[in-house]
Amino acid sequence: MPAMDNNTMMRPLDVRQVRTRLALRSAMLDMARNVPFDEITIADLVSQAGVSQATFYRHYKDKNALLTDLARDFTNELGRKITPETIITDSRKAAQALCSFLEENRAVCAALLSHGAKSAIFDDILENAVNHSAASGITEEIWLPRSLGPVFMVTTLLTLIGWWLHKGKSITITEMSELIDRLVFIPVLPEA
Asked: What is the chain's pLDDT, residue by residue, as a tens digit (192 residues)?
């Protein structure tokens, strides 16, 4: 098997490669809904995706790399749900949109936040939060040091999300939205 470097993954993909990646990602998502991540094997993934193991390894180093790839899409979607501008405009509505998205994708989110992609999700969300906080006014002129605001927000948010996803459905979307709003969003908003 050839060694995979960053340049290999950065080349533009042709239609066949895109199709293969979509099939592998779809297989991982389907399996993550029903099987704990630790029990998912490459053999199971390629069987469900309809590709060979050699094809899998041309695209991903291991199943954690595939999960990390999915995590990047997850963080992008998460970022669209809770843009800093939305949080400033209506933090409760942003929390509600976030919780609805998480509930709709509960099994996949739990897999992503519980396994190999957790650090990638954290890093991606933190990078987005830092990049957007300066432009949005979040973390400006509040009690938290400016550089700590995004770290506080991301760490607290992921901790709460992980707790909620593993707690089960005993906490409603409305209750969780209120927790996220009070514990994550409101503390980093500038005072009106």
From this structure: 444 444 345 555 688 888 999 999 999 888 877 777 788 899 999 999 999 999 999 999 998 889 888 877 877 787 777 777 778 788 899 899 989 988 888 877 777 776 555 666 677 777 766 666 555 555 455 677 777 777 888 888 888 988 898 777 789 999 999 999 999 888 877 765
For residue 16 the two structure tokens come to 């066949």
Domain spans, the chain: 6-61, 68-188
With respect to CATH, is domain 6-61 assigned 3.30.420.40? no
Start-to-end C-alpha separation, the chain: 58
Distance of alpha carbon 178 from alpha carbon 192, whole angstroms: 20
Q: pTM, whole model, 2 decimals?
A: 0.69
Give residues with Cβ within 8 angstroms of 148, minimum separation 6: 139
CA dist 162 and 98 (Å) reads: 13
**Radius of gyration over every alpha carbon of the chain, rounded to an integer in angstroms:** 18
For residue 36, what are the contacts with CB-CB under 8 A and spacing of at least 6?
Answer: 111
What is the rounded distance in angstroms from the CA atom of residue 12 to the CA atom of residue 112?
Answer: 26
